[in-house]
Design a protein that fits this description.
The chain is an alpha/beta fold. The chain has eleven helices and eight strands. Helix 1 packs parallel to helix 2 and helix 7 packs parallel to helix 8. The structure holds 2-phosphoglycolic acid. The site of 2-phosphoglycolic acid (PGA) has 13 residues, from strand 8.
């Protein structure tokens, strides 16, 4: 059966000491939490935060990684280096990577396969731009990103994949998709995964919603049949706002 999975994406925020303070607060306030949790600090804080999360119910996540194992790739961080720091999961294909840093589906797919090959869990982000939604293309865009992102991924690896539906127009803008609109896209992604991997795999797939999730809208979103958690940005930067989301309902 599916379980709820709430992840915090800290983006390019926090010094090591600030990250440590937040991690310690999350560990103490979520120790009785019933769901699956992840915190994804910047690369520079992974070691510090990893030491605090070790042995707790909060996974250590990275926000990106290179598509190659190692080599001449100035400024990139490899899967081997992430594993060396105890990273358990990686967020791939975030809209900021797709749109600001021009990562395409083929590159994201190489990263997905490499992360899985090295035993990491993956949060694969998909989502449409405002103009794509207004043109009635939201489902098609999310379908294409899902299909291309999962190309070459074996059925037995699918249990280590979470999809995060993040409409680009809702990220960091305070605009949230209505629970109904989000659920419709989640249902479509589940149908697409069902077509690729079968009904059992689709039924087990965790699909998070992301985009201005806050303490006051989390429970309504999570009540929807196909919404199995959240990928949280702004509200993940403080325990005061992340913990109520993580313990919604
Ligand atoms: P937001 O970001 O919660 O600040 O909208 C979500 C995300 O980008 O993962």
């Amino acid at each position: 059966m599916r379980h709820y999975y709430i992840a915090g994406n800290w983006k390019m925020h926090k010094s090591r000491s600030e990250a440590a303070e937040l991690a310690r607060a999350l560990v103490s306030q979520l120790k009785d939490g019933k769901h699956k949790y992840l915190a994804a600090p910047s690369f520079t804080s992974l070691e510090t935060v990893g030491a605090i999360l070790k042995g707790t119910n909060i996974l250590l996540g990275a926000q990106n990684m290179a598509a190659e194992e190692q080599g001449a790739h100035t400024g990139e961080v490899s899967v081997l280096q992430l594993k060396d720091l105890g990273v358990q999961a990686v967020i791939l294909g975030h809209s900021e990577r797709r749109h600001t840093y021009k990562e395409d589906d083929a590159l994201i797919n190489r990263k997905v396969r490499l992360a899985l090959q090295h035993g990491l869990e993956v949060i694969l982000c998909v989502g449409e731009l405002l103009e794509e939604r207004e043109a009635g293309k939201a489902e098609a865009v999310c379908e294409a990103q899902t299909v291309k992102g999962l190309e070459g991924v074996a059925k037995e690896s699918l249990a280590r994949i979470t999809i995060a539906y993040e409409p680009v127009w809702a990220i960091g803008t305070g605009k949230t998709a209505t629970p109904e609109d989000a659920d419709a896209i989640h249902a479509h992604i589940r149908r697409v995964v069902g077509r690729l991997y079968g009904a059992d795999a689709a039924a087990a797939l965790i699909i998070q919603y992301g985009g201005s999730v806050k303490p006051d809208n989390a429970a309504q979103l999570m009540a929807k049949e196909n919404i199995d958690g959240a990928l949280v940005g702004g509200a993940a930067l403080k325990a005061d706002t992340f913990v109520p989301i993580a313990k919604f309902g």
